């Protein structure tokens, strides 16, 4: 069996070092980099760097490449579109790919009601516009998000995000009328409390909030990741998500599902909301929508989406033709190749390994996930559950040096997360897990 990862040089290699010098001279230090090298090419679930090192990709551009690197049908569609027109701007002269993608998203997102879709550029921009639309429709100001939630780096999205460093530190003041509530974290729930009791405690706190802080009648929307991404791949129960939706329905509050990371097959269904039997009023999407082309979408109930007047939402590059044709091909791949089913298989395989590690290594505190959105939480002590951020970073960097690109997550920075492309082969998946296990054995024994 020919291995897919082949490390020729310690990172960064000779060419990588030269590029790193240029990066340090010309690019601000702010944008973080997980791997200390530069990509030369990518295909499927394999990356090759400028020094000829080959890597198995367990990061997938932070969940943007469910369809893999450079899928043939997407590349062909974009090349064909390039020969026709690149960007006339939808606000100047409309084009059919925008309409076609809106129709498709209206069809495949949860719910059979009449929907409409706005196309934009990024996940954060989708969140910004979802909040604008919710406030316009309801005439209310307050917006509730959840602790450990991540919704982006623009000011509204950053205000809704619940992690100070590195996202919010010294960037204030933040947008007003944004509030955060409890979200279940079963691994760290109070001792002796059942998961259902933990859920209901969070729900009671939300009801109390409406009495103590802001009335429900002044609340426009509650925005929730069905599975928390940057927060550590924390998976809530169906009970909790349904209870939140019931509260929204009770008070006329819009329920916004942030599916930027959880969408397009990642969790074993096309959208994670489907696992919880809830139908969002608005859903935000981006990342894996277009195999790496920058595009995002806000899809919602038609009457809600029509609340803003002409010219009140949009943007010059929103819904670019290249992004639209790429997205249509990605969705076709998802449906034709049944990538959500593939995600369920990948997740089962990874979780079986992760659960074994929780019995093998004291540092492996918790294994969790939904579909191919899987995580391993690392701790210094099993009884105290003290987070081990330092060990997590050592594991990540050791894996990269051995040919496996992987990333961390979590409020405490102590979670290893896997977001491999869903087109990854079994051979590549096994080899990636073998690399990770070798590093775990070396650093956790």
UniProtKB/TrEMBL annotation:
EC class (word): transferase
Highest taxon of the lineage: Bacteria
Residue ranges that the Swiss-Prot or TrEMBL entry lists as coiled coil: none
Pathway(s) of this molecule: Amino-acid degradation; 4-aminobutanoate degradation
Catalytic activity, EC: 2.6.1.19, 2.6.1.22
An annotated GO BP: gamma-aminobutyric acid metabolic process
Reactions mediated catalytically: (S)-3-amino-2-methylpropanoate + 2-oxoglutarate = 2-methyl-3-oxopropanoate + L-glutamate; 4-aminobutanoate + 2-oxoglutarate = succinate semialdehyde + L-glutamate
Pfam families: Aminotran_3
Keyword vocabulary terms for this entry: Aminotransferase, Pyridoxal phosphate, Transferase
Cofactor(s) listed in the protein's UniProt record: pyridoxal 5'-phosphate
InterPro entries recorded: 4NH2But_aminotransferase_bac, Aminotrans_3, Aminotrans_3_PPA_site, Class-III_PLP-dep_AT, PyrdxlP-dep_Trfase, PyrdxlP-dep_Trfase_major, PyrdxlP-dep_Trfase_small
Single GO term (MF): pyridoxal phosphate binding
Keyword Transferase: yes
Entry's family note: Belongs to the class-III pyridoxal-phosphate-dependent aminotransferase family.
NCBIfam families: GABAtrnsam
UniProt protein name: (S)-3-amino-2-methylpropionate transaminase
Organism: Evansella caseinilytica
